[in-house]
Amino acid sequence: MTLSTDAPVLVTGATGYVAGWLVKELLEAGVTVHAAVRDPAATEKLSHLTAIAETAPGEIRFFKADLLQPGSYEAAMQGCSVVFHTASPFTVSVKDPQKELIDPAVQGTRNVLETAAATPSVKRVVVTSSCAAIYTDAIDCQQAPGGVLTEAIWNTTASLSYQPYSYSKTLAEKEAWKIAENQSRFRLVTVNPSLVIGPALAKKPTSESFNIVRQMGDGTMKQGAPKLGIGVVDVRDLAKAHVAAGFVEDAEGRHIVSGHNTNLLELGKALIDKYGDRYPVPRKSLPKWIVWAVGPILGGISRKFVSNNVDIKWRADNSKSKRALGVTYRPYKESMEDMFQQMIEAGVFRR
């Protein structure tokens, strides 16, 4: 795939986990990247991006933008042919889900796409949605045709009070399609990843994925890990999927980007060969009844969540991403080892 370098592209939330690898792909292809960030003066947070740009044929330019401020992406979007909207909060520990999740996700999507609809140069918008906009719990797979999630399915089980992150991604993507269908300037393409794993480019990654993997090495899961059904995708494979969504001529619609149908225990066990002799990585299954009993006390995990996800298989169809975007998926063992090694080197696990 050849990327056009005739016009710059915009990446929102450019300092994020996924966005970092996306920016790297674009810069190395010679594309000029307009990077929208909260504070262009925070050079430490931007250092990994500027370092990539120094040795890549592409150029990076930083712009100040705020998800909740209408019109704040206008300057960054000028002259851009493609807009990659990756900015959206990913956290499960929130006190005010409306303020911390729903508002930035939905209003941010509205602000970016309405600006795109008013910017003559924009021909395509790629929104980083999520498989969370398709399902809430692994048990939802059982209700899907053939027991497998597809792009035709929308999440109907999340709410402000239950799994608000999934609810925020659902509302945000629906808002994106609503705006796209009421204009004719750009084509909307969405990328719907499962849990993202793999190494980060930033020195201090904040994605919830790192909190999960941290517990696999700090002793939290020493007694075992639950077979909590999930899908996973390597962040580097996901970045390539974004590039394809932005530049493959006939790319359209939603795309499940998930490399593997697995569970939390299997991810932990992927670390045994390389790290099992030095770190307390999980080796066995934590019985569902134990997770159900202690989850609400120790980890704030609701019993409804345990019932709907532990010991329940997660299945999704990723064939469209392979066919339409040409995505290939590396083994999750490689992703987990690369991620864990980076965390060791960053001093995450004190021994």
From TrEMBL:
Asked if Oxidoreductase is a keyword of the record, the answer is yes
What Pfam family is a match, any one?
Answer: Epimerase
Q: Which UniProt keywords apply?
A: Oxidoreductase
Ranges for domain NAD-dependent epimerase/dehydratase come to 9-245
Record's InterPro entries?
Epimerase_deHydtase (IPR001509), NAD(P)-bd_dom_sf (IPR036291), NAD(P)_dehydrat-like (IPR050425)
Could you tell me which PANTHER family the record lists for this protein?
Answer: NAD DEPENDENT EPIMERASE/DEHYDRATASE, VPS9 DOMAIN-CONTAINING PROTEIN
Protein's name in the database: NAD-dependent epimerase/dehydratase family protein
Organism expressing this protein natively? Roseibium sediminicola
